[in-house]
Amino acid sequence: MVEEIFSIRKYLRNLKLPFCPGCGIFTVMNSFLRAVHNLGFENLKSFVFCSGIGCSSWISSPYFIADSIHTIHGRSIPVATGVKLVRPDLNVVVFGGDGDIVGIGLSHFIHAARRNLDILVIMINNMVYGMTGGQVAPTTPFGVKTTTTPYGAFEHPIDAPKLAVTAGACYSARWTTAHPKELRESIEKTLRMKGFRFIEVVSQCPTTIGRRMGFKNAGEMVKWFKEKAVPVEQVEKMAEKELEGKIIVGEFVEREKPTLTENIQSRMGRLRIEG
Questions:
Q1: Which CATH number is correct for 20-274, 3.30.70.20, 3.40.50.970, 3.40.50.1820, 3.40.50.720?
Q2: Which of 41, 155, 160, 162 has its CA 20 to 30 A from that of 98?
Q3: In what side-by-side order are the strands of the sheet with 197-202?
Q4: CB atoms near residue 202 (< 10 Å)
């Protein structure tokens, strides 16, 4: 039997993608759809995609040949919650940027992890509000200049994968666009799992932050990601000072526990028996 050759166009509508040249979103889209292909999905009929507002939120809507819901800023996870509770048989995936997921949508992110909602959240972290002019984001590296921090960011960035672990996620990982193989494998694993699964992808945005960080092009940013990446397994062997400015990559947690849907179904079943 001859295996079908992967083609990203199989899953995409015939529309021109809106992303800037060199944007890391192309890598994320390719990795996700390649994972879907490798798992044997002929199409995306068993998926529903939810997204908010921002460059990353355009990944699925309207470009994937699939059902998708484009929500208001920061509200993709609550909408995904409703979809999953009504249709627990579907694969519900959220795509969003760092501002969308851990900025205005932070409380929803925490509570979805706490509830162990059975969805996959993929957050593309370009370290800035890229679509609206390059303002400082909750993930902007300390000291980096943006349009709203001309003297450099005074705040340290949020560590979303660690927050997901603490809140109760079943799976949490971070990769960069310099790790496409690891990212694809991570997506494949999470699509076979249940529970709240979170993947952060540190991605280049050469248009709004790359030049402010001194990079000449997207390739330089990807090279920088590779140089700054430290496997999570090595962190315990390194001093805190050594980790400053590094990007910790890898899987932070992988565990099994009942999902929100399973808890609801179990409880309602007991109530019917008792009633």
A1: 3.40.50.970
A2: 41
A3: 67-70, 47-51, 91-97, 120-125, 197-202, 171-176, 247-254, 229-231
A4: 24
